[in-house]
Amino acid sequence: MNQRDAPAMRLLENTPVKLEISNLAIFEIMFDDLTFTAQMRLCGRFHTHPNMENWEIQPIAIIAREMD
User: Fold this and answer.
1) Phi, psi at residue 17, to the nearest 5°?
2) N-to-C CA span, the chain
3) Cα 39 from chain centroid?
4) N or C: less crowded end of the chain, CB within 10 Å?
5) 2 SS3 class
6) Bridge-partner residues for 27, per DSSP?
7) Mean pLDDT across the stretch 26-44?
8) How far apart are CA 35 and CA 42, in angstroms?
9) How far apart are CA 53 and CA 62, in angstroms?
């Protein structure tokens, strides 16, 4: 599965806010989107390694915003 194929909406489909907001824009931040320095800082902060996570298929952050 390609990292961009990870279904972001699945994470929000059971969220009550999504039911109230019909024009929700979603932006995913993937681990590979980060610079090497940011990747190392993230791994250091959480005492982990990319091989121990599922960041190649799941976003590390999802930003949702209501659009006008």
Assistant:
1) -60, -40
2) 33
3) 14
4) C
5) coil
6) 63
7) 96
8) 11
9) 16
